[in-house]
Design a protein that fits this description.
Number of helices: 4
Helix content: 40-55%
Strand order of the largest sheet: 1-2
Shape: globular
Number of domains: 1
Distance between the termini: 11 Å
Strand content: 5-15%
Number of strands: 2
């Protein structure tokens, strides 16, 4: 299965969340206005995904490619307020987005 990144507006987001819920996805919604640094991102994702270790990008990346402890086979990451998300470091923002692909 291939990961997919989509950009949707507020109206589409409401129906998308409903569809994901109906299809039993494990959904994590990243609050872009609050997650503006790499450390904030690692802490947020580590807690939401209950990662044993998320001290750096290598550990985060290893766990994100595993996720065997998540009971749902389908996972969605929604980033609200994408323009604000990681705006303090655009280079790391691109790295994170590439890692989600």
């Amino acid at each position: 299965m291939e990961n997919k990144i989509s950009f949707v507006d507020k109206v589409e987001l409401v129906s998308l969340k409903e569809r994901l819920n109906d299809l039993n996805y494990f959904v994590v919604t990243v609050p872009g206005k609050k997650v503006r640094t790499f450390r904030q991102y690692l802490n947020f994702m580590g807690k939401k995904f209950k990662m044993p270790d998320y001290a750096g990008f290598a550990a985060y990346s290893d766990w994100m490619t595993d996720l065997s402890w998540i009971p749902n086979q389908k996972i969605a990451v929604i980033i609200n307020k994408y323009d604000f998300f990681m705006n303090k470091n655009p280079k790391l923002k691109r790295l994170i987005m590439d890692s989600l692909k």
